[in-house]
Every structure is written in structure tokens, then in C-alpha cells.
Specification:
Layout lengths: L2 H4 L4 E5 H4 L1 E3 L3 H11 L7 H18 L11 H15 L6 H18 L2 E3 L3 H10 L3 E5 L3 H11 L14 E8 L6 E3 L32 E3 L6 E9 L6 E6 H6 L7 H18 L9 E6 L8 E6 L2 E6 L2 H5 L1 H9 L6 E6 L1 H6 L16 E6 L2 E6 L12 H10 L4 E5 L5 H8 L4 E6 L2 H13 L7 E5 L2 H10 L6 E4 L11 H4 L4 E7 L19 E6 L1
Parallel strand pairs: 1-4, 12-13, 16-17, 16-19, 17-18
Antiparallel strand pairs: 2-3, 5-8, 6-7, 8-9, 10-11, 11-12, 14-15, 20-21
């Protein structure tokens, strides 16, 4: 590390597990021992391991930092995670049995699970202390780490966790050893709202309005390879949102560590991409303009509904640059109004509580849009951004299959698939949904499209109850559309349990205006299957 960088370094934060120590044995070994202690058979290693990965990811999303930001007890966080792990693996223990199994697992990791200290860990810590640097730790087994593991490593002066929350620009460098991370930040602006993150020392100093020239690097043998630069949030599950790779910064240095310029470039690129896809067009003026990671702006979504842009914010950095984003979106041709829709729950996990902030409401609560020539009345207060533009191509596909068919649209919302089926020449279409407000829009959409109410209708009711009733009456449809919320944790074996044979005829995802990054497969959130059931 160069003397100039070292002189500005104040803090190093490390994740103890995987950076300083590693547990011995397989996760399944501990689950098996715990199950046997409760007189239960040993669960399948692979199924429980896969279940744990899913449960851990979901808990980290809902309650990041092991629940510390929400003052959630460590044991409670892990109890939910472990229970969900077993459930996803197909093991549904009764409460007493699970309690015995969980106590054994938690006690093992909290007291006697064997671990190995990496050979360079103590040397690295001595190097830090010799230079007077503060060391912060991330711990998921807090009491054992605090009382046993950390003192064994020489970290025995544990102070109170820092209650600072940073949203910063910083540069990143790699080296061959990916365990040792020495990172500081170049603070972009004054600190944002505070958030407690126990077990992590999140900042080198309290937030201030002054710009600080700091740096970031990974170091092992003195060779460094720059990755790029991004946004750092000490509270977020996504602590680093990489905004520009090093080679990109070399090609366009005007955007390097310049969020305003980067936003202008990325939004302009998004507009150009949609125009190349023919959006908007004479028959479609509802589409997605910015799709988060797919447009290299993680946490930002912009949907266009006629002359209104609905901006959905799910990252602290988006709130920080709200004025710049609104200004750039307002410059898009045809946009006359902007509706800002922050996701309060997700932003809380980002360290921001905006529940008391006043949002400037649009003067309109609804807007008429057109998709493939079909008119929709969209509620700007509806779910997500108000309209599911991601299903546009799938709705059009349904219209091509519907001629002379009896069609059932379950969980129809405001009637997207049902309206396309009716326009496609279906003999009869029924839409089912439990939301009265959604069905009000659906019925209005029948009028707007001048459809024959004798051939299309909407019914308020519970989808499961309706389907059971249809089975008891032996009612059949030629084409059934099911676009539900999550109904069950597992789909494996559903067809065989129903005594049916299913053939996959088509598999699709979101519309082309919802691009994804191959490096972020989680962005491919929508799966659409056309099935033949016999």
C-alpha cells in the first residue's frame, strides 16, 4: 500500500467467518447430529444444504445484518432461518421437536463447533494494529465471537458498535488474496439518515458535509488490479453497488466517480435501447424505461404510462440522487408528469426510514394507457408501479391462442390477459380476482375497449375456492391463465399428485424492455410457462 493511501486509511472491516476463520465439517453434519439428539432420522444433506442457502438468502433480504438493524435477537433470526431451511427441504417438524433440534444447532455454533484460523489472519491483524487502524468485525454468532473467537485472535478490546450510515462513492482494487480487504471510501456528500448496525463498525468517522479523499484497495502481495468504482452503503444487504468497471472508466473518464454524469449516460442509453425496440409506438405507450440491474442502475425502476413516469426507488442511493433522476427522466420526450414511489420496507433495510417524508402526489390517480392496441385504465397507486408491463409479450401471445376458446383468467388483477383473450376472439372469458379495486379497473377496461359483456366478465372471489368449486361441478376451459402470488414453497411433484401429465410447450420471461444482466441471474424473476395438461 502506498504511503499516501495508508495515511488516509482509518478503518478495516472484516467478516470473521471466511476471512479470519472457517468452520470444520459440513453443515449437514451439524443438522444430522441435532436431529439425532431429538430422536429423529438424519435429514438429507443436500436437500437441507440447498434449503439453507435459500432460507439464508431470504432472511438476509428481509432482515439484513442478521436482524441487528431491526433489533432482532440473534437467536430469533437464526431460528427462523433454520426452520425455513428444513421446511424448504421437506422436513416439517412439530414445534417441540424443532425447538430441540434448533437449540442443539445454535448451542453448537455458539460454543463448541470446531473451527480453523487462517494462517495469515493473526499476521494481518498485527499489521493493522501496528499502524493504529481501527478494526470492525461482522459476526453472525455474536456472543461466541465476542467472548471466545475474537479474543483468541487478539481482538479483545470490543467497543460499542458505531451508529453511522454511509452512502459513499469509492474506488475498488483487487489482488490475488480475496480474503484481505482494506477499504475506505471517498464520501460523496453529507451523511444520510442514521441506522444502527450492531457487530459492524461501519464508518471511520461521523458523517460530515466535507468531501474526504479516501481510497479503497485489496492487498496481499503488493500487486493491485483495479476493478472499478461504486456506491457503498454500510447498512444495506448490497453493501457495494458497482457502478462502473475500470475498463468502462477508461473509455469514458467523464463518468468516473461522477454520479450525475453517470446517471445522465445510463438513462440516455436506456431511452435509446427502448427506441430501438420500438417503444413507445402507435399501439403501445406503457413500457419500462429503466430496469434496475438490467440498465446498470441497481435499485432504480422507471415505468412509462402514457405521459406519466412512475419512478420506483428501492435503494438509498436512489433517494440521495432523487432530484437528479427526476430531472433526467422529465427530459424524456413525451413525459409531462412524474410519480415517485419509494419502497418503504426495502429502504428501511437500506437504513432509511422515509415513513414521515412527504411525497409530492401526482395530480392524477389513474391514467389511460395502450398496450398492443388495447386500452387500460391504470391506477398509479396500484401494486408495484401500477401496471405489470413485464407481461406484455405474454399477453399478446395469449391473444393469438384464444380464438373460439373458453378462457379462464385466475388472479386476473385489472384484466390484462382476459382483455387480450377477448380481443383475440375468445368465445367466453371469465376473470377471477380477490381485489375489488382491481376488478373495478377491469370492468372499466371492458367499457374502454367496447367489448361485449356477454363474452367477458369478472368475478370477485378467492382463486382457490373458485377452482375447487369448478372441479366439483366438472367445469372445463380450453385455456386457463394462472398468474398468482406464491401459493406453495415447492412445485416438485404437483402434477403427479394431481394425477395429471404436464407437457411444457413454451417458456418465456419478461418483455424485452426488461433487460437483465447475465452476471445477475436474480434479475430474471419472471417465469412464464405454457403447459398442456392431460
Amino acid at each position: 500500500m502506498s504511503p499516501s493511501l495508508l495515511s488516509k486509511l482509518r478503518l478495516v472491516t472484516v467478516d470473521v467467518t471466511g476471512t479470519l476463520i472457517a468452520y470444520k465439517g459440513q453443515l449437514g453434519d451439524y443438522h444430522c447430529m441435532a436431529a439425532k439428539s431429538a430422536w429423529m432420522p438424519c435429514p438429507d444433506y443436500e436437500r437441507v444444504h440447498q434449503g439453507f442457502k435459500l432460507a439464508y438468502a431470504e432472511m438476509s433480504r428481509r432482515h439484513p445484518c442478521f436482524g441487528h438493524a431491526a433489533a432482532m435477537p440473534n437467536a430469533e433470526w437464526w431460528k427462523v432461518c433454520v426452520r425455513d431451511s428444513f421446511a424448504m427441504a421437506g422436513y416439517d417438524y412439530d414445534d417441540d421437536t424443532f425447538e430441540r433440534i434448533f437449540r442443539r444447532i445454535y448451542a453448537t455454533f455458539g460454543s463448541c463447533a470446531p473451527y480453523t484460523v487462517f494462517p495469515d489472519a493473526r499476521r494481518f491483524l498485527r499489521w493493522l494494529r501496528g499502524r493504529g487502524l481501527v478494526v470492525g468485525v461482522v459476526s453472525n454468532a455474536e456472543y461466541r465471537y465476542r467472548d471466545v473467537v475474537l479474543p483468541a485472535l487478539g481482538l479483545n478490546q470490543v467497543s460499542q458498535p458505531c451508529h453511522a450510515h454511509l452512502l459513499c462513492l469509492f474506488a475498488v482494487s483487487w489482488s490475488s488474496d480475496n480474503r484481505l480487504l482494506c477499504a475506505t471510501v471517498r464520501r460523496a456528500r453529507s451523511g444520510t439518515s442514521g441506522c444502527s448496525r450492531a457487530s459492524t463498525i461501519a464508518a471511520a468517522s461521523s458523517a460530515s458535509s466535507a468531501l474526504e479523499e479516501l481510497a479503497a484497495e485489496r492487498k496481499a502481495d503488493g500487486t493491485q488490479k483495479s476493478i472499478g468504482w461504486g456506491l457503498y452503503n454500510s447498512v444495506s444487504m448490497f453493501c457495494v453497488r458497482l457502478m462502473q468497471l475500470e475498463e468502462e472508466a477508461r473509455r469514458d473518464p467523464t463518468c468516473a466517480l461522477n454520479m450525475e454524469r453517470l446517471l445522465e449516460a445510463r438513462i440516455s442509453s436506456a431511452v435509446d435501447l427502448r427506441r430501438s425496440l420500438g417503444l413507445p409506438s402507435a399501439t403501445t405507450n406503457a413500457y419500462r424505461l429503466v430496469n434496475s440491474e438490467g440498465d446498470r442502475l441497481s435499485g432504480l425502476i422507471v415505468d412509462i404510462f402514457a405521459d406519466i413516469a412512475v419512478i420506483a426507488s428501492s435503494a438509498a442511493w436512489v433517494e440521495k440522487y432523487r432530484e437528479e433522476i427526476q430531472f433526467l427522466v422529465s427530459k424524456v420526450n413525451g413525459i409531462n408528469h412524474i410519480k415517485w414511489r419509494p419502497s418503504e420496507d426495502i429502504l428501511k433495510e437500506e437504513g432509511l426510514d422515509i415513513s414521515e417524508q412527504k411525497t409530492h402526489a401526482s395530480s392524477r390517480s389513474t391514467v389511460k394507457v395502450m398496450e398492443n392496441g388495447i386500452v387500460y385504465l391504470v391506477s398509479l397507486e396500484g401494486q408495484k408501479t401500477g401496471f405489470y408491463a413485464d407481461q406484455r409479450e405474454n399477453r399478446h401471445f395469449i391473444s393469438l391462442l384464444s380464438k373460439d376458446q373458453r378462457v379462464l383468467d385466475i388472479c386476473c388483477c385489472s384484466g390484462g390477459f382476459a382483455l387480450h383473450a377477448a380481443k383475440g376472439g375468445a368465445d367466453n372469458v371469465i376473470g377471477i380476482d380477490s381485489s375489488g379495486s382491481a376488478l373495478d379497473l377491469a370492468n372499466e377496461n371492458i367499457t374502454l375497449n367496447e367489448l361485449n359483456r356477454g363474452r367477458i366478465s369478472f368475478v370477485k372471489g378467492d382463486a382457490t375456492a373458485f377452482m375447487k368449486g369448478a372441479i366439483s361441478k366438472n367445469e372445463l376451459w380450453d385455456l386457463v391463465i394462472l398468474d398468482p402470488p406464491k401459493l406453495a414453497p415447492r412445485k416438485k411433484g404437483a402434477a403427479s399428485m394431481a394425477g395429471k401429465k404436464v407437457t411444457v410447450l413454451r417458456q418465456a420471461g419478461a418483455a424485452c424492455d426488461h433487460p437483465t444482466d447475465p452476471a445477475y441471474p436474480e434479475g430474471q424473476y419472471l417465469s412464464n410457462y405454457m403447459l398442456r395438461v392431460a
